[in-house]
Amino acid sequence: MGIRHIKAKIDTGARSSSLHALNIETFDVDGVDMVRFAVQPHQRSDAKTIACEAPVHDIRSVRSSSGQASKRIFILTEVHWLDTTWQVELTLANRNKMGFRMLMGREAIRGRMLVDPGQSYFGGRPKKKKRKHW
């Protein structure tokens, strides 16, 4: 989808995975249900916005961490982490108030990785840009 880097939380308590998406809009292309949306991949920043489109994989009811059920659009996309690429189902939701722009649930990581709750940034921290000093 053109998103090079996004900080994701691995959450074994969540069944499904979710991507922070804004301006979610469904449309039809030759009988195929599609969705367009915007992604702001950087935490606490709206400086960069990436326009995305994907086929709608499904629409299902999802229960949030607060217990609220809502219908959400699911898409299929590839995730690349370390030296592995695999396909995951993602729900599209506004995660602006959440700590992470992406959540990887247990279905996405099942059989692919073990989780050490005492570790962070297992895949490495992204390189920080050097600030200009005037």
Automatic annotation (TrEMBL):
SUPFAM superfamilies: Acid proteases (SSF50630). Coiled coil: none annotated. Residues 5-122 form the Retropepsin-like aspartic endopeptidase domain. Gene3D superfamilies: Acid Proteases. It comes from the Bacteria. PANTHER family: ATP-DEPENDENT ZINC PROTEASE DOMAIN-CONTAINING PROTEIN-RELATED (PTHR38037:SF1), ZN_PROTEASE DOMAIN-CONTAINING PROTEIN (PTHR38037). This is Protein containing DUF785. It comes from Rhodopirellula maiorica SM1.
